[in-house]
Design brief:
47% of the residues lie in helices and 9% in strands. It contains seven helices and two strands, in the order H-H-H-H-E-H-E-H-H.
């Protein structure tokens, strides 16, 4: 249905282009604890969602057009890297993260599981991420 003209606009308007939808998406899929969603987060995501042509990236994501196999490229990474993985991430489990990290041990120096967090651990518990970054400098 996402490919049907006008229906795609309706889906985007109802599912991403309003404060309730953004807040619900953050609470349901991106953060592990709904009370961690702040008004500032909602406003930032909503502002991005309302930019001209923003719907095209969101709809492409929903259609699966933005997916790619990171394992094909991770071996090219040369910059020292720390992987931080949200323990409760729904769409990407820890086994996947560990497998990706193992593909380039020269660049990927450490793999840290961030407890009580989801895919946006840097927003949920930034103090933990900041601590890990300082520790791994």
């Amino acid at each position: 249905m996402i490919n049907i003209p006008f229906v795609d606009n309706l889906i985007y308007a109802l599912g991403a282009d309003n404060e309730v939808a953004v807040s619900n998406f953050l609470q349901s899929f991106l953060l592990s604890q709904p009370e961690r969603v702040t008004q500032e987060m909602v406003e930032a995501y909503l502002s991005c969602a309302q930019k001209p042509n923003a719907k095209f990236s969101a709809l492409a994501f929903l259609q699966g057009d933005l997916y790619f196999d990171l394992s094909l490229y991770i071996r090219q990474l040369k910059i020292p890297t720390l992987f931080c993985w949200g323990e409760e991430a729904q769409s990407t489990n820890i086994k996947l993260g560990r497998r990706l990290a193992s593909l380039n041990k020269n660049a990927i120096r450490d793999f840290q599981v961030i407890g009580h967090s989801c895919i946006l651990a840097h927003l949920e518990i930034p103090e933990v991420l900041i601590g890990l970054l300082y520790k791994n400098l």
